[in-house]
């Protein structure tokens, strides 16, 4: 069906931090840091009303990530639009490892759902599946969908029906983060290319131990976060692409702060209770802007209105 002109959907979607050190491609946190977007179905044409982060850089055509995801979502639901106005105020910085692309994809899908299914609650499983497929890894996408802390994976059998498994974790009370955001950018696609196909068995064993401990540390015992966030699978291979970030992670960890590269970088995420995070105050953070953040909520379809929406 063609969505009637005048129907408007509005959504809010969080920034996310994937990996958390040892949880490469499977652990993610939603942050209390959001983009808000609105889509209005029209009789024809494409209009972008964009402000904030990346507004001057993103393509204003079919390649716009939110629009592309919205169109894919509508097609999956068997619907379409004759035209569209897309309004976005972005606060999540792009290409810094804070899940801006996952947020854009999840937002596009939630907008599609709001336009096409105005009377039905957003199907989070549907958003998980399409957004994780589009991203190619489920860690930030599912964190942006569910909020809080998640453990997520996709089946290894690529011929199997596409599904995403998500476990919503209950974070230990008082868990906070500081996102230390540099001015330089790293594209996630580039940062994935430098990863080796195989790793030594001892590294794999250590990583398995750390990632198992990570679930325990996040949910039960934040005192274990420093050991649990130790990583051998991605950060060492990416360090040269983001030397200032790698050096800041090392300096923070040396004073006992559980610091990691957020997603594919170059933002540094320090994770812990307020007492643990206070240790970061003695470490020079030159070249980085500190954003203290609590954990955030998942995507919200805030409103659908117009044309019997
Ligand atoms: N809100 C948005 N609107 C349009 N495009 C976006 C938006 N957010 C991210 N993108 C696209 O995604 C790219 C960044 O993706 P990526 O390299 O995966 O970094 P990140 O770690 O921020 O997700 C941007 O260069 C831009 O093309
Ligand atoms: N597991 C992915 C996470 C990418 O996160 P982003 O926020 O940088 O898009 C990876 O490490 O490649």
From TrEMBL:
Annotated protein name in UniProt: Homoserine kinase
Catalytic activity of the protein: L-homoserine + ATP = O-phospho-L-homoserine + ADP + H(+)
Organism whose genome encodes this protein: Luteococcus sanguinis
Positions that bind ATP: 93-103
Residue intervals of the GHMP kinase C-terminal domain: 225-276
Keyword match Transferase: yes
Record lineage: Bacteria, Bacillati, Actinomycetota, Actinomycetes, Propionibacteriales
Gene3D superfamilies, sorted: 3.30.230.10, GHMP kinase, C-terminal domain (3.30.70.890)
InterPro entries for the chain: GHMP_kinase_C_dom (IPR013750), GHMP_kinase_C_sf (IPR036554), GHMP_kinase_N_dom (IPR006204), GHMP_knse_ATP-bd_CS (IPR006203), Homoserine_kinase (IPR000870), Ribosomal_Su5_D2-typ_SF (IPR020568), Ribsml_uS5_D2-typ_fold_subgr (IPR014721)
Entry's family note: Belongs to the GHMP kinase family. Homoserine kinase subfamily.
Cited Pfam families: GHMP_kinases_C, GHMP_kinases_N
């Amino acid at each position: 069906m063609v969505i009637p002109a005048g129907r408007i959907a509005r959504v809010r979607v969080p920034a996310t931090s994937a990996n958390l050190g040892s949880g490469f491609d499977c652990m993610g946190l939603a942050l209390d840091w959001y983009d808000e977007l609105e889509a209005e179905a029209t009789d024809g044409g494409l209009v972008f009303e964009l402000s904030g982060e990346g507004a001057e850089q993103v393509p204003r055509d079919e390649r716009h990530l939110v629009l592309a995801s919205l169109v894919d979502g509508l097609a999956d639901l068997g619907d379409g639009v004759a035209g569209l106005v897309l309004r976005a105020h972005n606060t999540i910085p792009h290409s810094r490892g804070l899940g801006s692309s996952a947020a854009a994809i999840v937002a596009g899908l939630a907008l599609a759902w709001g336009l096409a299914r105005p009377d039905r609650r957003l199907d989070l499983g549907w958003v998980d599946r399409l957004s994780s497929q589009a991203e190619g890894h489920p860690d930030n996408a599912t964190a942006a969908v569910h909020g809080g802390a998640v453990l997520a994976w996709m089946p290894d059998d690529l011929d199997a029906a596409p599904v995403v498994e998500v476990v919503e974790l209950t974070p230990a009370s008082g868990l906070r983060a500081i996102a230390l955001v540099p001015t330089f950018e790293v594209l996630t696609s580039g940062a994935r290319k430098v990863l080796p196909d195989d790793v030594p068995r001892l590294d794999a064993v250590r990583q398995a131990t750390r990632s198992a401990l990570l679930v325990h540390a996040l949910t039960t015992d934040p005192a274990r976060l420093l050991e649990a966030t130790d990583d051998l699978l991605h950060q060492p291979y990416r360090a040269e692409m983001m030397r200032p970030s790698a050096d800041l992670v090392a300096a923070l960890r040396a004073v006992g702060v559980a610091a990691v590269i957020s997603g594919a970088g170059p933002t540094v995420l320090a994770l812990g209770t307020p007492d643990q995070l206070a240790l970061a105050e003695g470490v020079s953070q030159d070249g980085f802007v500190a954003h203290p953040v609590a954990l955030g909520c998942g995507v919200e379809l805030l409103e659908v209105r117009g044309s019997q929406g």
